[in-house]
Design a protein that fits this description.
There is one protein chain. The protein has 249 residues and is α/β, with parallel strands linked by helices. The chain is built from nine helices and seven strands; from the N terminus they run βαβαβαββαββααααα. It is globular, with a radius of gyration of 21 Å.
């Protein structure tokens, strides 16, 4: 059995690698899929984790950048009057019903594992995420944290006990996947705008690059630009309330 550790870099997969090493489980390789949309702190974390464990972490990349798939990729009609022709350009933001970003990641990991004999992909789903477990006919999977009985909160504590803090990302966010993930709750998108204005500005630029007629809905039917207006108006209201409070004092 050749265990391939799928390392997203978050608390769960980091804890999984640490515990597998502590339990002397055989590891064929550790692979990190770089979407190109990671927090800068995540790259620092991967470098630190490799130095701490002494295990080589292989970085995988999509065949073409995610920005290309979102804004430039020609989409060919599979049926209808335009079958075989380009009917639109770019996928737009990922949707719950069309998580093309996740599909690209899974395809790349499967491609990596294909030549490995008796490959088993180890995924960092915690013990309180059993509904996320899955099976596949293309390769075998394990969920070591579920086998060890380690929950999400346990995983974060274990990582912190080993000195990992992700530059404080978990102080702001419950998950630290792509900074531009459309599936983040509004409260965390608000924090992203406030604490990481350069990344928020990049998201606005990414949305501008999506061709007209494609999916610009980012979160619950709202575009990034619409969220920017909402957050700006909230800031203005809070500023007025603060000024009123000072004047009354």
């Amino acid at each position: 059995m050749n265990n391939i550790v799928s390392l997203s870099g978050g608390k769960d997969s980091t804890c999984m690698l640490i515990k597998m090493l502590e339990k002397n489980e055989p590891i064929h390789s550790v692979v990190f899929f770089d979407t190109g949309w990671e927090f800068p702190e995540m790259y620092e974390h991967i470098t630190k984790l490799q130095a701490y464990t002494g295990v080589k972490i292989w970085t995988l990349h999509p065949r073409l950048p995610f920005d290309y798939w979102m804004t430039i990729r020609p989409l060919i009609a599979k049926n209808g009057p335009k079958k075989g022709e380009v009917h639109c350009v770019g996928n737009g933001w990922p949707l719950i019903s069309r998580r093309w970003c996740t599909g690209k990641k899974i395809d790349t990991l499967l491609y990596y594992a294909r030549p490995v004999k008796n490959a088993v992909q180890c995924v960092g789903y915690a013990a309180d995420e059993k509904t996320r477990a899955f099976s596949s006919t293309k390769t075998k999977h394990r969920f070591p944290l579920q086998e060890y009985g380690i929950t999400e909160s346990n995983a974060l504590k274990i990582c912190k006990d080993h000195g990992f803090h992700w530059g404080g990302l978990y102080e702001h966010f419950s998950r630290v996947s792509c900074f531009c993930c459309p599936f983040q709750p509004i409260r965390e998108l608000r924090k992203l705008r406030r604490e990481f204005p350069k990344l928020w500005g990049r998201m606005i630029d990414m949305e501008r690059a999506i061709p007209d007629g494609r999916n610009k809905d980012f979160n619950n039917g709202k575009t990034v630009y619409e969220l920017e207006r909402r957050f700006y108006q909230e800031d203005q209201q809070m500023s007025l309330l603060d000024n009123r409070s000072v004047n009354e004092d």
